[in-house]
Amino acid sequence: HAYHGPWHPAPQPPPSQMPALTGPPPEFVGHQQALKVKNDINLRKDTIRLVPDAADPDRRLVSFTFDAVTDGSLVIHYFAKEGKDCNFSSVYPDLQTPTKIPFQKGLAQNYVQPSGSGIDLGFFSLDELSNPSEEVYPLVVYAEASPSPEEGGQTVNPTRAQITLAVIEKHNDDLQVKVVKQILWINGVRYELKEIYGIVNSTEADVPDADDDGMGKECVICLTEPRDTAVFPCRHLCMCSECAQALRLQSNKCPICRQPVEKLMEIKVRSAEP
């Protein structure tokens, strides 16, 4: 027969045993190996200056220091826009005729534009110089490798170039160059150069204040293995590859700046020779 006794709800676990509500799991973060690309020419972006033309002080000439392991050529463009295959052309073609200046291989070469080849920047507003629109760059330096026959140069060589894109700002009544980005165009592939924060390589051997005992080069998580993995987009080289693999499963934040991590990149850095 039917039971008409009191109704009892199904037993529930006590609050302490209730499953906790957790946030969404960290997004999957890709882990990539860095690709080694040979760069034949390097313009030292912190050396770019605008100097008055002695023959016409209203005009400015571009000067900088660069390193080249092969012969090549330089072309300077003003107010240029990127086109197909990393070619650049000025949006003001009557402003200046770009001239290809050849150079020979060598390190720490100082370059100054020939007198008369600069432009009078006074015709442009500060906003046009420092905040251009539609991917127009007030200053573009196109440095292309052109190996000589003695260096193994061929009749038809794939383009190998470094392109430096910059804006021009005014500081204390002086015009200064600020590099926005540097591009490598190697055999039909476009790469954008990025600074990596925390790389210590063979160049530190030439720095008197370099830390000889190696402190500060270890992974910030395990503190034992060398750093070899960078976090993007913040570009902190701060972890070893093993800790980076573990981090992908636990968090999507950079251990240095706490910014969200989009990808991890393993970068093998050559140690200084004794």
Outline:
Its EC number is 2.3.2.27. This protein has about 270 residues and is mainly beta.
Explain what the structure shows.
This protein has 274 residues and is mostly beta strands. The protein folds into two domains: 41-193; 197-266, Zinc/RING finger domain, C3HC4 (zinc finger) (Herpes Virus-1). The protein has two helices and 15 strands. The strands form three sheets. Strands 5, 6, 7, 9, 10, 11 and 12 form a seven-stranded antiparallel sheet that branches. One of its GO terms (biological process) is protein ubiquitination. Belongs to the RING-type zinc finger family. LOG2 subfamily.
List SSEs in N-to-C order.
EEEEEEEEHEEEEEEHE
Total tally of structural domains: 2
- β-strand number: 15
Q: What oligomeric state do these chains adopt? A: single chain
Largest sheet: 7 strands, antiparallel
Extract low-pLDDT stretches: 5-26, 201-215
Task: Report the total helices.
Answer: 2
Q: How are the secondary structure elements laid out?
A:
Blueprint: E1 30-33, E2 41-43, E3 49-53, E4 56-68, E5 72-82, E6 88-90, E7 101-103, E8 106-112, H1 126-130, E9 136-145, E10 160-171, E11 174-186, E12 189-193, E13 229-232, E14 236-239, H2 241-250, E15 263-266
Parallel strand pairs: 1-15
Antiparallel strand pairs: 2-4, 3-4, 4-8, 5-6, 5-7, 5-9, 9-10, 10-11, 11-12, 13-14, 13-15
